[in-house]
Design brief:
The structure is a homodimer of 336-residue chains. With 336 residues, the first copy, chain A, is α+β, with helices and mostly antiparallel strands. In chain A, 32% of the residues lie in helices and 23% in strands. Chain A starts with 8 loop residues before the first helix and ends in a 21-residue tail after the last strand.
Chain lengths: 336, 336
């Protein structure tokens, strides 16, 4: 049976996906029904799954290679934030009939690119038909030394709150899909759109955070929403100083004087930076890590003992609390 | 953000899914971004992913608990066929707006039922919205002693071909969704439909096959198609004797004298029985396994050295080769 593509699932797997499994012996070249994986001695496996859906997590017109890379990267981002080194992934590819072989070829090229970049391997998967949009579900596997995974719940009072890279670019990029404000330079529009379309998980940095971070999460739901996740499990509150939140030049341009846009940046998701807490004594070591990895790391706030339920307060540069209309996206509400 | 359900993803996870992760410490109660899993000393992890899609792998009207259980079971079936003991799974749940909280509650009840039955635990997942049909992707984890996984490629010339349970029930059950032939008893219709809707993976038997099977696969694409997979990797041919293929009483009733229906049984998928090869010397041990597990196991053919490319020949009771119009379903062609 070949479906409307004139090529069977088995042939597609052999042609486009088996090469992606070539260098991982336990994947058996995708010629068996399962894959085998064993962490190195002293390590445990860190697993994560996340799916992206056409029309929800990416515009339906997104090129196939970018869809593939985003699906993989959002999972690698979680592994990185937990201090894990990525190793392998499983792929479920749910495709409407409108997807042709060229699309699949481009999709596989995107995966090949990122496999090279992040040193991960496809080890198994499944293809199915659908009457709906493209769905790509990835389950990613990483390794971490036993007991060294960085959790949400380890933050301590007076820990400093850090974030990598810049925040809000993806939310701004998403908002620009409907049209850019007058005066925003094309280069800025392109930069912000790229940050939304193709996140850069902090895979090179994550494992080094094991030595310093007390808690960590990747910024996927939004800076404040993800800070709240750390607070909830750590049973602490956090104070974020808005003017210390790192913004890209493009984001500053796009925001201008617009207070609502600034608020949107603090609550927007999809940045895939790492938000983490660490004791003040780790500040020098973190500066060194930033230097050696080439990834900016900014101190943006402080953890506080709870008075009442755990809370996140964002202060403006006068020390006044900023009220955010919404604190972040959930997967049921995210729409381009 | 709560979507049209009036309840956020986080609340849904806390209410319906976190209880399913309670007994697996590395799942952190679904309160972190990843889960940790480590096979017991001397074991390796066996991983498998498979997704099912509304309107393709199950009728859109299927009750949510049956969808959940089928999604889990088709994965457990692969683990069983490879000799692995299932331990845990990740879940991607892609849901249209028409799905309400009651649906999700029923879905989770189905998972809870099967977790109890198969001793597996939810350890992580993701929920997303879609404009299309329900998609459920599961990645399942099992354990097997290092080097003991049963592969597709280990069959040897003169090995006997065995299959568990009965074959063709699911294909007949699927064909009956459009209406049952006159004279077929309602109990038979119900039995065959149930076999299609809710497979019973041979989880209790699978790990014991390590001691006897040289190659194995679960029957999901169809008896002949899956036999062909073993042949292709083992570089052997197989001869199947059609009248030794085990049929349920209901299947015999449904087939009657209809040669086409018999052929459909041999090529139909979704039985989730285990098809395996073993040396003739293992016959007694296999009979004991069948007895102790309560699962029928039938010898249905023999492996042969290849003459030309690997092939599967099905013989009728006069020793004549039966030609099958189609040999099995691929995922792109399977439609209820």
């Amino acid at each position: 049976m070949t479906g409307q593509r004139g090529i069977s699932e088995f042939e597609l797997v052999a042609r486009y996906f088996a090469p992606l499994a070539r260098d991982f012996p336990g994947a058996y070249g995708l010629l068996d029904d399962v894959a085998l994986i064993l962490p190195a001695p002293g390590n445990e496996l860190v697993v994560k799954t996340d799916a992206i859906v056409g029309g929800i997590d990416f515009p339906a017109t997104t090129p196939a290679d970018l869809i593939a890379r985003k699906a993989l990267r959002v999972n690698l981002s979680d592994l990185a934030a937990k201090g894990a080194v990525p190793r392998a992934y499983l792929l479920d590819l749910i495709l409407p009939d409108t997807v042709d072989e060229a699309w699949i070829s481009t999709f596989a090229t995107g995966l090949a690119n990122d496999q090279e970049q992040y040193r991960v391997h496809l080890i198994g998967g499944d293809m199915s038909a659908t009457s709906g949009p493209v769905v790509v579900a990835v389950s990613a596997f990483g390794e971490v030394a036993c007991g060294r995974v960085i959790r949400r719940g380890g933050a301590r009072p007076d820990d400093v709150v850090f974030v990598t890279g810049t925040v809000g670019d993806a939310a701004l990029g998403l908002s620009l899909l409907g049209g850019a404000p007058a005066g925003l330079e094309p280069a800025s529009v392109a930069f912000l759109a790229a940050r939304y379309r193709l996140p850069e998980p902090r895979v090179a940095l994550g494992p080094h955070l094991q030595d310093v971070a007390t808690a960590a999460i990747d910024v996927s739901d939004g800076l404040v929403a993800d800070m709240r996740h750390i607070c909830a499990v750590s049973q602490l509150s956090a104070v974020i100083e808005a003017d210390r939140v790192p913004l890209s030049t493009s984001a500053r341009q796009a925001i201008g004087d617009d207070g609502e846009r600034l608020a949107a940046v603090l609550s927007g998701g999809d940045d895939y930076e790492i938000l983490f807490t660490a004791p003040r004594s780790a500040t020098n070591k973190i500066a060194e890590l930033s230097h050696s990895s080439g990834i900016p790391i900014s101190a943006i706030g402080r953890m506080r003992p709870v008075e009442g339920p755990p809370n996140v307060v964002v202060l403006d540069n006068c020390g006044q609390a900023i009220t955010l209309a919404r604190e972040g996206w959930t997967h049921f509400a995210r729409e381009p």
